[in-house]
Design a protein that fits this description.
With 400 residues, the chain is mainly α. It is 76% helix and 5% strand. Strands 2-1-3 form a 3-stranded antiparallel beta sheet.
């Protein structure tokens, strides 16, 4: 649950910050433990509790932050001074407020990883975990560079997926608008026109007229029904285990499921590779990866595999028991474990699946575009034929 608090800092400064906690007593205890004086507390927006409008630091800004902070640390600037420099240049309001809180915590003696973990609702779990690894190994600058590379590759893959889906979505939107115009504007005019003719209308024409009438008379109720379904779906997805069920079902959808599985595998492999390269132990890396992977089914599989690794099983055996990864990925992980180059092999797995996703998406788009154009033409032609056919029959009857 989200709370907006007005607090007094140890330095004497009074600020307003947003915190995430289970309830008010636990948050009060946390603030007291950190040496903050609480002036006031209020609940955050209800929309945020539903998962809407929650402020997040954009990935591209986080990428730039990691790159620049690594450069400042390499140049020999102290951590607090480096954060001050980053804060002066930051214009994004959410990110700026968060960096102010991080700087204040670091000034008071808190580790950088703990300072970012306190703002965990704004950042991916990967950030604080990577910083922990960097602090343990004394190589914070190197870990930040690897994290920046990880974010860059993930961002690049997401941008490719978005750009690839823009044209099909535009075609779908055009088709929806065109059909809506026909149903709402054109069909009612044909209805009024055919009332003056004593002509037996074909079944398809009567069905389209009935559909148009229902939409016109019950538009408000249909809109409310749609909103209700969306809210219900969102509420169901927020229930524990619902997302896992949905993602497992999507994994079984032909072609789409294989693409989703490859993307989730790539995310998992790259996350583990980055964490292991940064010096984090495998068990800790698995726990962070379970929280970082976007696909709920893959995250559940990683969570189920972690106790098996704790019991002494290999990563390959533990992941194989979950039946989520395909044989190729498992074989590559096995080779990485046997050769002692697990981080490098996981990175190779991610690179391979990224290329495979790009190739398959290009092939899918090459098929989708003509198929959607043909569907659009068939729908429009069918609707026009359904309404012009009775007109042709009426003209023929008059001529006879």
């Amino acid at each position: 649950m989200e709370y907006v608090c007005k607090i007094g800092m140890p330095s004497g400064e009074v600020v307003e910050r947003t915190f995430v906690a289970v309830d008010e007593p636990s948050l009060r205890a946390e603030l007291e433990q950190k040496g903050y004086y609480l002036f006031s507390m209020r609940r955050g927006l209800v929309l945020r509790e539903l998962g809407l409008g929650r402020p997040r630091v954009p990935t591209d800004l986080l990428l730039i932050f990691c790159q620049e902070l690594a450069a400042l640390l390499k140049a020999g600037l102290p951590l607090v001074q480096s954060l001050e420099v980053m804060l002066e240049r930051q214009r994004h309001p959410v990110f700026r407020r968060s960096l102010e809180a991080v700087r204040d915590r670091v000034k008071s003696g808190t580790a950088l990883s703990e300072a970012f973990r306190a703002e965990r609702d704004l950042y991916p779990p990967m950030l604080s975990a990577s910083l922990i690894a960097g602090e343990r190994t004394g190589n914070l600058e190197g870990v930040l560079r690897r994290l920046a590379q990880y974010l860059r590759l993930n961002l690049s893959l997401k941008k490719k997926a978005i750009s690839a889906s823009v044209y099909p979505l535009m075609l779908f939107a055009m088709m929806f608008v065109l059909v809506s115009i026909l149903v709402i504007v054109v069909i009612p005019k044909f209805q009024d026109f055919y009332k003056d003719f004593n002509v037996e209308l074909p079944l398809i024409t009567r069905l389209l007229m009935g559909f148009s009438t229902a939409v016109a008379h019950h538009a408000v109720w249909l809109l409310l029904l749609l909103v209700g379904l969306l809210v219900g779906a969102m509420s169901w997805l927020r229930r524990e285990g619902s997302g896992v069920v949905l993602d497992r079902f999507l994994f079984r959808v032909p072609y789409l499921g294989s693409l989703m599985r490859m993307y989730a595998t790539s995310q998992l492999a790259r996350t583990l590779s980055a964490l292991l390269s940064g010096g984090l132990p495998l068990l800790n890396a698995m726990e962070v990866a379970a929280a970082s992977v976007g696909n709920r089914a893959m995250a559940a599989a990683v969570g189920a595999a972690t106790p098996q690794i704790r019991e002494g099983r290999s990563l390959t055996t533990a992941l194989e028991s979950t039946q989520v990864l395909d044989n190729l990925a498992l074989e590559m992980v096995k080779v990485g474990e046997q050769t002692g180059a697990l981080a490098d092999m996981l990175n190779a797995v991610a690179d391979f699946y990224d290329e495979e996703i790009e190739t398959r998406m290009a092939a899918v788009l090459a098929l989708i575009e003509p198929i959607m154009l043909v569907c659009m033409a068939v729908i429009v032609a069918g609707m026009l034929l359904a309404f012009y056919l009775p007109l042709f029959e009426a003209i023929s009857a008059i001529q006879r």
